[in-house]
Task: inverse folding
């Protein structure tokens, strides 16, 4: 069989159907609990063998990427250390997702590039070491790498995979304002009342989720008041089965049972005439 020299993959957006801060750890990090899934929209990544390493960007948000800060370069550096040789590939990233938006774009990019490189070079890494690499890259990277809807606990530990979250239609809305995750966690207040551990139940999922929260929403709204405005439009002018902010924001989402409700919601937002990034998509349980 001829060896593959080029791989092109979707690097999808992730959304947190709920995200709660359980406690602050002694190391300064926070233990979380979240139900996370993917959307069938995101960035596009092409990795192909080349004479030297290079990376280039295009797409709606490609111009704002700073190469020296990009997580993809860290992935390459890690793989080079493992192989003890230079990686000679060209990586082309079509950046369709807003930066620092709560959609896990950077984590998804890192995970996607790592999967592509491992496939191109036929790299096998024992699971313990692989998981260590993924966590070093970022708390959301393990989830993005394994590519399935999951309950996440602790600082990014996959507690339980699930493949049967209903394939709701999703409207993503971002006010085109960056929100710093570290700034939010610096000021987060952990709720004293201990909440019940989340137990996945497809039949009563929406009912259960409406009783959960995104604990980062209040702090994110203090930084970006547009989040509150977007939430009000979702809740008062459209008919979602669920709406909330994802991740540390500022992207908010609405879930809809049919395409007409999705389209009507999109129309409501576009008629506002505000500068916003608006995208129709759908839940994707498994990206592999």
Result:
């Amino acid at each position: 069989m001829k060896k593959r020299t080029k791989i092109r993959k979707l690097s999808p957006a992730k959304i947190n159907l709920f995200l709660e801060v359980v406690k602050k750890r002694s190391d300064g990090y926070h233990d979380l609990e979240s139900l996370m899934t993917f959307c069938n929209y995101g960035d596009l990544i092409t990795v192909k063998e080349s004479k030297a390493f290079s990376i280039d960007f295009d797409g709606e948000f490609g111009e704002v990427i700073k190469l020296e800060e990009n997580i993809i370069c860290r992935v390459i550096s890690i793989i080079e250390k493992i192989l003890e040789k230079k990686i000679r590939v060209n990586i082309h990233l079509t950046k369709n997702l807003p930066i620092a938006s709560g959609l896990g774009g950077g984590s998804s990019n890192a995970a996607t590039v790592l999967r592509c490189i491992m496939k191109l070079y036929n790299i096998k890494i024992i699971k313990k070491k692989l998981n260590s690499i993924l966590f070093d890259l970022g708390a959301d990277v393990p989830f993005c790498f394994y590519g399935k809807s999951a309950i996440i606990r602790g600082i990014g530990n996959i507690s339980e995979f699930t493949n049967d979250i209903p394939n709701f239609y999703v409207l993503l809305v971002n006010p085109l304002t960056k929100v710093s995750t570290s700034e939010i966690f610096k000021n987060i207040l952990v709720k004293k009342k201990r909440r019940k551990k989340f137990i996945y139940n497809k039949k009563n999922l929406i009912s259960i989720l409406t009783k959960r929260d995104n604990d980062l929403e209040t702090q994110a709204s203090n930084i970006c008041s547009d989040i509150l405005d977007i939430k009000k439009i979702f809740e008062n002018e459209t008919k979602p089965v669920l709406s909330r902010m994802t991740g540390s924001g500022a992207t908010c989402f609405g879930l809809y049972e049919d395409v007409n409700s999705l389209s009507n919601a999109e129309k409501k937002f576009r008629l506002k005439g505000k500068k916003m990034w608006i995208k129709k998509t759908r839940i994707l349980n498994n990206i592999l």
